[in-house]
Give the backbone structure.
Amino acid sequence: MVTKANPAEASGGVRTINVCNWKPLDNGSLRGFLTLILPSGLVIHNCPLLEAGGRRWIGLPSRRFLMADGKVHYEPIIEFTTRKARRNFERTALEVVEAYLKARGEW
């Protein structure tokens, strides 16, 4: 279950996204994993925070699997129907995550 979901939020009117369950991890472009709680009540666990080439972004959880040839592939668990929806989510989520990490003194 989600714990401590109130430390940071971004607001666009009555819409908010909450961040919790931050797990730092420094591995290549991966900075860690977190949980996002959307205004609808949807809880998205294991969202990666990534940083590369001077750019940061929030990924969505995916399922890792091996192909018959032994190569690793990732399949999205959830996705957006449009690029615009994805960009809006990513921009807001990143603002929230950055505020959350600054409030915790981790950014």
In short: The radius of gyration is 14 Å. Helices lie at 83-103. The chain is about 20% helix and 45% strand.
